[in-house]
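Work package 3, deliverable 3.1, input record:
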Amino acid sequence: MEHTAQMVPLNYYLFLSTFLFCIGVMGVLFRRNAIIILMCIELMLNSVNLLLVAFSSYNGNSDGQVFVFFIMVVAAAEVAVGLALLISIYRNIGSTDIDVLNKLKW
Amino acid sequence: MTETITNNPTLTFLGLLIPLLPLMGFLVNGLLGKYLPKGSTGWIGSLTILASFVCVLMIFKDLGAAQSIQIDVFNWISFGNIDISFGLWIDSLTLIMMMVVTGVGFLIHLYSIGYMHADEGFTRFFTYLNLFIFFMLLLVMGSNYLMMFIGWEGVGLCSYLLIGFWFKNDAYNDAAQKAFVMNRIGDLGFLLGMFFILFHFGTLDIQAVQEIAPSLTADSTLLITITLLLFVGAIGKSAQLPLYTWLPDAMAGPTPVSALIHAATMVTAGIYMVVRSNVLFALAPTTLQVILWIGVATSVFAAVIGLKQNDIKKVLAYSTVSQLGLMFAALGLGAFNSGIFHLVTHAFFKALLFLGAGSVIHALSGQQDIRQMGGLKKLIPITYITFLLAALAIAGFPLLSGFFSKDEILAHAFEQNKAIWTILFISSLLTAFYMFRLVFLTFFNSFRGTEEEKHHIHESPWTMTVPLIILCILSVFGGVLGLPVVFHVNHWLDTYLASVTAPSAALVHHGEALSHSVEIGLLSFAGIAAILVIIYAARKYITLRAMPEDDATITGLPKLIYNKFYVDEIYHSLIVVPLFKMSEWFGNFIDKQIIDRAVNGTATMMDSGGKTLRLLQNGNTGTYVFAMVIGMVVLFIIRLLI
């Protein structure tokens, strides 16, 4: 069946994706809770997923969608490991505040 | 020119031994001296020089007057078209100089064994003396100007070391420094001359330069510049006006040093250099005129100052300056052979005078003021007789060596310019007068020192008197080297040096040759004048017992002369003081404010830069992430723009 409805312009997806990515970056830089930082990293990954799918749909090339699958798998694995680490740290230190977790600074 | 021998192994070996032996003596005494028994270092030092002298004699026997030996030890500098080898060149002139250097050098070494025997620096003395002989030999044997310059600088260094030998005395150190600095000023001229020669002739080899030179226009600016610059070097080294003030101060060194360096050898290096380059100088008559007038002026000026000095060594020092002036006057007249003749006879009698003075000082346990001497004639007879004969030689007493050499120069002067002859003649009369003032005040009448001193007076040991006697014989009979032709004999030195100086003889303007009667007339006139001056001095100082004034009471013209015309003071205020002021200014302003600030500022900058950059690695992961973000943004922007 033919599409007659207006398609959403690619630009919109670009701006959305960039916006989401920037929110993610600022979250990583400015938030103190480690869990929030992990969530923002997820946000960044997902914004990239969105953009890849948008490009793939508009160019009729399915490479982008396959790549998204990979990213999702990696993101999931990473979150699992990251949260496991965070739980371990919380059990030892008693806080998830990154200002407390500053042993790297001599 | 000469026939060059390059493939005779015996002669080459002997030629190499001549400078090597003193060098070995220097190394043995310098490095092993403190392990050797005390007296032996003196003998080691002396015997190396004797061995060197024997080698010189062996070469002298074998080498003809028109032959020369070239020894290229190794090829030293070669780039582009320029080839300078570490080469030695031995011809008749070199042999004469080497005989003087090693012969008189050996006698002075022997003398020093006795003179310095009580000194704690005995070994060091002989080390330096041997080093000096080595450099002096390099100077006279060098086949190119650079080799000569090595020797030139080296003897300057040894002069510094030996003048300041008793280094615990500040005044002596100052004298040594003064000698070195004034020599250096001359060396700058020599160096510039060498640069010009290298640039325009393409080579520094002396023989090559002499061959190329005649093809240039005579008296061109280039030749005048080169020869004047070389002569500036000679002015510094041979103590002519205006760079002569170091020589009287150099009397601070031990007397054998004064005898060897400041009478017989180092100061004659300038003369040697000019005679060696005689073709160059003959092609620049303007420079010869300059040399002539500087020589004449120095001769008279120094003789006048010598009239009023009271230190036995200072009188001899000014006498040396004056005689060197006479030698340069000879060179300026184009009479290169006569210059060398006077150099040789002067080496004999001046070394003898200095050694004799040393003997007197030794006998009086250090007294050098002639106003405190007197009546030593009977107490130290050998010293007295040798000193007297040397004084007669320098005064030009008939038939002694000085008579012939000096009068040869005067005859050349008479040929060319009667005015020059008059001035030089007056200088000779002054020489005779002050020398015999010295002799009569030191040896005649009665002793003016303390009774204690008189008790200690003793004749010197044989190591000191034997050199005196040998030098005396040479001073008396040395005239046979150059008997004038009017005596119907062959002038040996003239024929011997012909190969060296003949090329220039054709180029120099000679006056009309003197007829025999005029020459004999001049000889007799000079001889009789000398005798009359001696009689006048005898009357004044022996019969009338005239005494030089006390330092406190001297006034007027004698005071001016006694204070050496205040030349040292003038140099001090005109040159030394402004230099010190400039040095202070440089030190306070440029060094402290500018350079120190720049250096310290750089260090501070490094420090604060480091402190800032350190913050990049503060262990705060938030900062690292931030840096990553910034980097990403920058990359995006660049990607966007390109």
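Residues 568-641 of chain B form one domain.
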